[in-house]
Design brief:
2 domains, elongated, Aminopeptidase, alpha+beta, 329 residues, 10 helices, twelve-stranded mixed sheet
Length: 329
């Protein structure tokens, strides 16, 4: 941990997870931003890393409000935070997320954090997410030479409707995930299903166990499609229920759907998707969301047929020189 820098918005720097007090302040800041914006400002992977302690995986810059600008020790409130998740799972760039408390926006906090970040990380080696693609984020990205390279849509099903009666392929059945038994089989199936998507396909046992330790984890909502003959895992639909926060009610999520190469083209993906939605409906979740890359036309078409509509967009930015001025999708 570094001491507070001397500036209008003093910045404290942590290599690895910050201490419990700072982490509590980050949670409060993120909650205030989500209540104001309707979007969680930090990703799930960021929260997983913030609870870890690997200094090679995480860099945190915390900017504080200070009544006495000349006395950094008088810092009283967390005004903004920038978190860099360094490359993992075969990715080629670190990922930045930056959020400013609603009370301190348009006062230079974000610019100060980004400028300070240049002293501690190579900006050309970073990608940055804007959850909700806010105007302020777009302006800040442009100021530092970042351009959009990827759109991740959030789609939402807002009411229960008649879902299609989709049959499983012959000889396949669905059961719930069994903790302590299915971890390795799921990791192998996930790696095969997402061989060309290192962010998801590179999940490790530690990554899986971190999510299983989350309060939202429910093995009944982790649906596995298995071969009736030999029990081989052919696909899965991991659902999630986000608890309500502030004025925002709870909402279900199509968290991740995967089908192994052996079972692709059999209709299993659609059957698993529908089965997961029905499970969430049975749990009382009428509103259901999911994430999908905006240029994944087949997936978008499937979700639209099931009643999902585009709700919001997360945008990834990269330095213009690194992106080559094109959408990498």
């Amino acid at each position: 941990m570094n001491a507070l820098s001397s500036s209008d918005w003093p910045v404290q720097i942590f290599k690895g997870a910050p201490d419990a007090e700072v982490l509590g302040s980050v949670r409060a800041l993120a909650a205030a931003a989500e209540e104001a914006d309707g979007n969680p400002p930090l990703s799930e992977q960021t929260w997983v890393n913030l609870r870890a302690s690997d200094p090679d995986q995480l860099l945190v810059l915390a900017a504080y409000a200070n009544e006495e600008k000349s006395d950094p020790a008088r810092a009283t409130a967390l005004a903004g935070v920038a978190v860099v998740n360094f490359p993992a799972h075969g990715e080629d760039a670190g990922v930045l997320e930056l959020v400013v408390h609603p009370e301190y926006r348009n006062q230079g906090v974000g610019t100060g954090l980004a400028a300070e970040l240049q002293e501690h990380a190579e900006l050309p080696a970073l990608r940055a997410w804007s959850h909700g693609d806010h105007e302020g984020a777009a302006k800040l990205a442009g100021r530092f030479g970042f351009t959009p390279v990827r759109e991740l849509w959030r789609m939402r099903l807002t009411h229960a409707q008649q879902l299609p009666d989709v049959r499983l392929p012959e000889g396949v059945s669905i059961r719930a995930f069994v903790p302590g038994r299915d971890e390795q089989d799921w990791l192998a199936a996930n790696a095969a299903a997402f061989a060309h998507h290192p962010e998801q396909g590179g999940q490790t046992l530690a990554d899986l166990e971190a999510r299983m330790a989350e309060p939202w984890f429910d093995p009944e909502g982790f649906l596995l499609a298995v071969d009736d003959h030999d029990g081989a895992l052919l696909g899965f639909h991991w659902t999630k229920i986000h608890p309500g926060t502030g004025s925002h009610p709870a909402i279900g999520e199509v968290y991740v759907v995967g089908v192994t190469p052996k079972a692709q083209g059999t209709g299993l993906g659609k059957a698993l998707t529908v089965a997961g939605i029905k499970h969430l409906h049975a749990k009382g979740q009428q509103a259901i969301m999911l994430y999908v890359d905006g240029d994944n036309a087949p997936a978008v078409a499937l979700y639209r047929k099931l009643g999902f509509t585009r709700w919001d967009t997360d945008v990834m930015y990269a330095p213009a020189a690194a992106s080559g001025g094109r959408n990498e999708g």
